[in-house]
Amino acid sequence: MRSSILFTSCLLSLIERSFSLTLTSGQRISSRMRKNQNHQDTRRGPKSFFDLRAIEQWGEENGLKEHHLKTIYKVVMTSYSCDRPSRHEESQVLQDKLRALSFPQACIPNLLSEFGYTCTIRNIQQSQGGAKFGIQLANGKFVESVLIRHERNNGDVRYTVCVSSQVGCAKKCSFCATGTMGLIGQLSSAEILEQIHLLQQYVKHKNLPGKIRNVVFMGMGEPLDNYDAVHESIRGITHQCLFGLKAKKVTVSTVGSSAQKIKALADEAPQVCLALSLHSAIQSSREKLIPSAVSISLEELGDALDYHAKKSGRGSMLEYLLINGVNDSNDEVDSLAEFCLKREGNVYVNLIPYNPTLAGDNFGYQTPSDERISDFHDKLKAAGVKALVRWSTQNGRDANGACGQLVLTSIT
Ligand code: SF4
């Protein structure tokens, strides 16, 4: 499973948000976007079709049975058009489909007045490794999602969807442009699910080969800071009448500032993969990269990882962003190896060469040379740690969509 994820770490967080402007102007535009986000926070509309609890409650209130809800989901999953029809046209399509499937006629007007699609694709930027989407939420705020294309040697194509769980982020990691925004809002479970649905419809609409096979919470935001919505969205991702993915095809990426939430995820969704963005196994160095790491020691973090590894039975996955002269020294390799070798079960380390971002530029961060990256990798392997260099995370540089590069900039 792990090998199928090309982008790793807090991908979008690392990927960040950048649609059409250059990195040098990103900070200015980021401020404008923040302003827009605040100004557009007044739209109201129907509840989302992907608000599973609301749909279930509505069904109960209307005396509907389980198979009726399945019909709703079937129609909802196949009906959204990327051409953005009017709400009236959209309702007409849904109505016709529901009628054709013998859904109780008397309930249809009420269903379609109370529920609808609430998120919209506003911007798409293609890159070599996939595409990056600017998605507007019902309240007018924006997030980004990424469709990552994988092509196997036999020509089979599959996609990973990288979703956002928050608008902005409170964690302020030094390499990450999302962190420069601060936390603007929390996404609902429905808004998380709608991101996946929109990208799925895009693949269908464009007649692209292949299907979505993985979902990674590596977009804007720290997923464990929006735990309940993320947990509820996983119910939708794995729901047989919705996206139907196995839990092991879902990865939650965290910078790990809460041992309690890592353990809660292990208890409540043990088959969901956890990716810990470690970035340094030296506490002081880690705190420089991830300021929120000040609230948790490496021992506590290791303990939470071990707890998760025991519950999942699959070991631990660590993400390590390699930054020239910052966390690529021999001391860092030794500390990382020591941290990994102490863990319960197998540990897999993804080494991610830093991609230039505006946020990282402020700290003078640079990508290590290929030789330095390979040397770090070799030393880690020689110490007995399983590690891979994710060279592929650089594939999206042409669209500023590679790991760490997304900066939501073009929303006006
Ligand atoms: S947790 Fe850190 S890396 Fe992830 S989105 Fe927030 S600021 Fe960025």
Automatic annotation (TrEMBL):
Segments forming domain Radical SAM core: 155-398
Superkingdom as given in the UniProt entry: Eukaryota
GO cellular component: cytoplasm
Gene3D superfamilies for the chain: Aldolase class I
Assigned keywords, A-Z: 4Fe-4S, Cytoplasm, Iron, Iron-sulfur, Metal-binding, Methyltransferase, S-adenosyl-L-methionine, Signal, Transferase
Any one GO BP annotation for this protein: methylation
Primary location: cytoplasm
Location of this chain's protein in the cell: Cytoplasm
Cofactors (names): [4Fe-4S] cluster
Signal peptide: 1-20
Keyword Secreted found: no
Pfam families: Radical_SAM
Gene Ontology molecular function: 4 iron, 4 sulfur cluster binding; metal ion binding; methyltransferase activity
PANTHER family: 23S RRNA METHYLTRANSFERASE (PTHR30544), RADICAL SAM SUPERFAMILY PROTEIN (PTHR30544:SF8)
Protein name stated in the entry: Radical SAM core domain-containing protein
Species: Cyclotella cryptica
Lineage of the species this protein comes from: Eukaryota, Sar, Stramenopiles, Ochrophyta, Bacillariophyta
